[in-house]
Design brief:
By secondary structure, this protein is an alpha/beta fold. It folds into two domains: about 70 residues, Orthogonal Bundle (Arc Repressor Mutant, subunit A); about 110 residues, NAD(P)-binding Rossmann-like Domain (Rossmann fold, 3-Layer(aba) Sandwich), CATH 3.40.50. The chain has a seven-stranded mixed beta sheet. A two-stranded antiparallel sheet has the order 1-2. Helix 1 runs antiparallel to helix 4 and helix 2 crosses helix 3. The longest helix has 19 residues. The N and C termini lie far apart (about 65 Å).
Length: about 210
């Protein structure tokens, strides 16, 4: 039987599509019904040709000289980014950052539902964080396999990142959203997205320095 291969989306496109979605929501709130790629590009100070090429990936067709129906384009982007499919995830680490992530209700809008947290602090195990149970990290592999969890959110100190990532991978996790301030090693086929807060802060501070 022939299998349909999904054409890979360029990483820059994947990172721009959520920006387009934000702009579209703002335009919709201002009463806009139809929108062109040029309008989106102007809002974000991007090249309109690039915006048009990115939107082609979501497989929606606009009308000549009119553009796209804004509601249809919003839904098309959400579907393409899989935001309309709620995916359950494990959160590892319930410190200050983990606590904040567990309490961020808007994750559900983007298709993420954290159903369990894990922490090696004996005083936290058996408690809840924003209504989410906190469990022993050693339970990750078995629970991930039994519950078919495919996403792990890593919010632990750098020195604990790799060992907890290994537990997630052992449990069959396919994607790790890494908030730990370090790089982790993962086998081929495991998607790792590093949310490096320190790198973003360093970029911001350096840019401010260069302007003065």
């Amino acid at each position: 039987m022939n299998t349909v291969q999904i054409k890979p989306t360029p990483e820059p496109t994947l990172r721009r599509l959520p920006l387009y979605h934000q702009v579209l929501i703002q335009l919709k709130e201002r009463g806009v019904k139809e929108v062109s790629s040029t309008t989106i590009a102007n809002e974000l100070k991007l090249d309109s040709v690039q915006v048009r090429k990115d939107i082609e990936h979501v497989q929606i067709v606009g009308k000549p000289r009119i553009g796209f129906n804004i509601d249809e384009l919003i839904l098309a982007i959400e579907k393409y980014l899989n935001w309309d499919n709620l995916t359950e995830a494990f959160l590892v680490g319930s410190g200050h950052l983990g606590f904040a992530l567990a309490g961020y209700k808007n994750f559900a809008k983007y298709g993420l539902n954290i159903i369990a947290a894990f922490d090696n602090d004996p005083e936290k195990i058996g408690t809840t964080v924003h209504g989410i149970p906190v469990l022993d990290p050693l339970k990750i592999p078995d629970l991930a396999r039994r519950m078919h969890i495919h996403i792990g959110v890593l919010a632990v100190p750098a020195e604990a990142a790799q060992e907890n990532a290994d537990l997630l991978i052992e449990g069959g996790i396919k994607g790790i959203w890494n908030f730990a301030p370090t790089q982790i090693k993962a086998p081929f086929g495991i998607v790792v997205e590093n949310a490096q807060l320190t790198a973003s802060l360093s970029f911001l501070k350096r840019k401010l320095t260069e302007q003065h």
